[in-house]
Amino acid sequence: xxxxxxxxxxxxxxxxxxxxxxxxxxxxxxxxxxxxxxxxxxxxxxxxxxxxxxxxxxxxxxxxxxxxxxxxxxxxxxxxxxxxxxxxxxxxxxxxxxxxxxxxxxxxxxxxxxxxxxxxxxxxxxxxxxxxxxxxxxxxxxxxxxxxxxxxxxxx
Amino acid sequence: xxxxxxxxxxxxxxxxxxxxxxxxxxxxxxxxxxxxxxxxxxxxxxxxxxxxxxxxxxxxxxxxxxxxxxxxxxxxxxxxxxxxxxxxxxxxxxxxxxxxxxxxxxxxxxxxxxxxxxxxxxxxxxxxxxxxxxxxxxxxxxxxxxxxxxxxxxxx
DNA sequence: TATTGTTATACTCTATAACTATA
DNA sequence: TATAGTTATAGAGTATAACAATA
Lengths: 156, 156
Fold this sequence. Notes:
Two copies of one chain form a homodimer.
Chain A: H1 15-33, H2 41-52, H3 58-65, H4 69-81, E1 85-89, E2 97-101, H5 103-123, H6 129-143
Helix pairs in contact in A: 1-5, 2-4, 2-5, 3-4
The first copy, chain A, binds a DNA duplex through helix 4.
């Protein structure tokens, strides 16, 4: 093994770099924690959203989670095929599907929450409750920022 | 537009969810900020590493940035083809390539840093210097955590 | 025997354009 | 005319296995 005593240097001062690395570390551990459950980050998020917003359609969920309509199709298909959610034609809008959890979906969600709580506890083991709350708050503020696209995307 | 008054509910309490969203927001704005520069998050990171660790090989850089050896090949090719870095057979290890920045690479890095500094200022506009430092510190601590894989991956 | 760089490959994720059926 | 869902597709990003040259 050659000497790996290289420094990240300037990258260390970039919040974006650390965000990328931290999110990647979380994804890796999340995936390991969910092994055998049949759920991933995205599908868990969708399942969780359906559970708390019974009857909403996939478009609305995709909008909240920033998932393209086109990409939602396969994701919902996946959850339906696993028997975790059900599609039913919406009563007030026959273009849309009303989504609800099946009993198996409820059970899967309970199991997933247990796994994920353990995963978060593991990743944040050295964080005080105060630090954890602070981190969540700072991150939530970043999410709300508009990207450059909304400012000057008119040219080009 | 159907009513989108749905809540993220339980997801709101998950640091992993916010990390994912925040990293995604940063990526979007980063990409827009680098438009026309020919650099992306990964290639900028590599360029930055080469600049601060002249002569190191691609394996060492990949190890630090968590990029697979196999995937480094195309990335280095890309930077070489753009004339930003140069490969030279390592004097002490003829298997390896010693990487250095070209003058064009130096210039590209200066330009990139300007764009990225503006990007970070924009994304963290409402953050005090103290908050920004706190965020970077908390994220850096997450990066250092070992994934579940290192604990109990022995069983199938 | 281990490591550097390489090729080939495959799977996931994300983004866009165009279609249909409803509204 | 706009929206919900769909299909097809393409580009990133990421992961593994196997090989040649060198250590």
